[in-house]
């Protein structure tokens, strides 16, 4: 029987594309498609699937609501669910996570990414299902042991061993040399082995070298100290899927209180870690471009400031404002504007060196941190390179578009050692670049600050003048110099202050 993938999307074109993606996954997979989520829920009452692929924005209900309804049913509680969202749908992703989404795909969806994510989730679910099937068989086989005695007459297993075998937690015991003394069904299934095959073997054979080395190091600490190592995380791969486990190690003691081995327990927290990491990513990154946002920028600038202080180094903060972006966004539409911003982000990232940093801080504004610079000449060279990349034509909806950028530069630590101040000074320099022809860069100078302060003071005085009625309207005649006749009037606003 084929593995079924349920696809729910109100757009017929997307349904056809995603169904084709499922076909590309292999002959063992089949797609079931619905344009109406209500109909899909009704169909699920009498049918089952192994994977859900749901668009977030649908007229009848959101993807989060659909998943929540599926999760409310006992038969759909553990079916993995992929939600398809747009770049900027931060709140949508959080809502979907709360509803029980397992993974996300970003629209437009690549067939390579679709197939890779879907197969990985299906393999992970299959492995989990195999574990539960094995646990269920053990439970059924020994259901009467609790009533008739403490030991299974066929397997010789005690009731405690049977209980341990049914727990969805990795449990194993090793001796002082690292040889396996005991392992439960859950762990042996992850290695695709039976418990009997694992007993007596070295666990290092089944782990990646780094994981095996970490495990041995921790075992040595437990054996030498006689103390447990609680609450640490470890990653390893199973069926090509990277899993994260919350682990604990404790000493196995003999009757003399001597450590003769190590007991290890590990709980699979992969889904929880994914949700935590995704939430953190959403909080620190711009959803449209994938670049860090203003929050992460502030952390990075503060880190660079401290590094410069300790190492007597130099760095630069660049603020970029795109020229002519608003024209393209207004005339070609927001979708074209978004495409342009993503392309700018990619080009900007391509100009960075290893320790440099780029962020989108809002609208058509970006920030760049240049680290390990050596004087103004090196910064000038980098600014020129950035402008050259941004000035290259962009193909937007089949039409080449050209934009520029105005760049303001503040120097770290020469111009300041506070994030907010450096940002303000770079902003002043950027507006000076705009005032001097655009598509150029300007370094901050003290004169810019004086001009800005004077402009701000003048603006405040003008507002006060309006409130105090200090402006008067006067008319002045215009006289022809030859005829001395009045030929017109000019209106003048006078400021009495």
TrEMBL record:
Limits of the Response regulatory domain: 4-122
UniProt domain PAC: residue ranges: 227-281
EAL domain boundaries: 455-497
Domain GGDEF span(s) in chain numbering: 313-446
Transmembrane segments: none
SUPFAM superfamilies named among the record's database cross-references: CheY-like, EAL domain-like, Nucleotide cyclase, PYP-like sensor domain (PAS domain)
PANTHER family per the UniProt record, alphabetical: BIOFILM ARCHITECTURE MAINTENANCE PROTEIN MBAA, DIGUANYLATE CYCLASE DGCP
Name assigned to this protein: Diguanylate cyclase/phosphodiesterase (GGDEF & EAL domains) with PAS/PAC sensor(S)
Originating species: hydrothermal vent metagenome
